[in-house]
TrEMBL record:
This is Ribonuclease 3. One of its GO terms (cellular component) is cytoplasm. It catalyses: Endonucleolytic cleavage to 5'-phosphomonoester. The active site is at D56, E128. It is an enzyme of class 3 (hydrolase). Residues 236-268 are annotated as: Disordered. Residues 166-235 form the DRBM domain. It is found in: Cytoplasm. GO terms for molecular function: double-stranded RNA binding; identical protein binding; metal ion binding; ribonuclease III activity; rRNA binding.
Length: 268
């Protein structure tokens, strides 16, 4: 067992106190924040990868239960898409950065010099490992509210933005199901200087333009176009602009996607 330096222990305690987490085993939390590169350089017999494996499973279980209760009308496919976004590495990485986890990760010199501390995949993995460590000491009941408040709810907000929500996959599934084809994206204009461009994109399905989008990167513009197209094809009025809190199909509208099948009338 590694003896923690006072400043290391204080940093870990500040993190726990900030989120009112009654964890006592600082060695376990320290392990969750020890990257394999640091363990290799310092010849430690452990790193955070096993805890990352455990935390990934815990996140999957708890977010599934959370979405099941939060969106009682949503179909399995919709819930799966939303789950995949909320616990994706970009979303988890962003949240880990906001929570200050990046400052607590122990990295090897090579990874540190390569800027790994800012890497979303590494940050997301560290958050998963922290979840695994918290689960081992506090159990599901002890961390469920914290996960909802600090991980899932912020993740939901991020999943509503063009950068994180994967509407391209949703639109592709719809196109394959209905037309046995895939959407086609075309950049119709570029404006602005090289360091601050704006891309305008249209998306076609079966030859018809269904949506357009704009963004500072092609990927964001394409996803916005897919979002508007998906809104158009899954809403009864067949058009209009999605509201700011889209995807509202998760708890409103779109019978084909979200409503439970009608129950048989068995009488009184």
């Amino acid at each position: 067992m590694r003896i923690l330096k006072p400043e290391r222990a204080e940093g870990l305690m500040r993190f726990l106190n900030r989120y009112n987490l009654p964890m006592q085993n600082l060695d376990l939390l320290d392990r969750a924040l020890t990257h394999s590169s640091y363990a290799f350089e310092h010849q430690l017999p452990y790193d955070n990868e096993r805890l990352e494996f455990l935390g990934d499973a815990v996140l999957g279980l708890v977010v599934s239960e959370y979405l099941y209760h939060e969106f009682p009308r949503a179909r399995e496919g919709v819930l799966s898409k939303y789950k995949a976004t909320i616990v994706s590495r970009p979303v988890l990485g962003k949240r880990a950065q906001e929570m200050g986890i990046g400052d607590l990760i122990l990295l090897g010199k090579g990874e540190e010099n390569a800027g790994a501390r800012e890497r979303p995949t590494l940050l997301g993995s560290a958050l998963e490992a922290v979840v695994g460590a918290l689960y081992l000491e506090l159990g599901i009941t002890g961390i469920k509210r914290w996960l909802v408040r600090e991980v899932f709810e912020p993740g939901r907000q991020m999943s509503h933005t063009d950068e994180y929500a994967d509407f391209k996959s949703l639109l592709q599934e719809w196109a394959q199901k209905n037309f046995q084809t895939v959407p086609e994206y075309e950049v119709v204009s570029e404006s602005g200087p090289d360091h601050s461009k704006t891309f305008e994109v249209v998306v076609r399905v079966n030859g018809e333009i269904l949506g357009h989008g704009e963004g500072p990167r092609k990927k964001i513009a394409e996803n916005q176009a897919a979002m508007r197209a998906y809104w158009k094809v899954t809403h009864a009025n067949g058009g209009g602009v999605p509201p700011d809190d889209f995807p509202s199909f998760l708890n409103k509208s779109t019978p084909a996607e979200t409503e439970e099948p009608p129950q048989a009338d068995v009488g009184n």
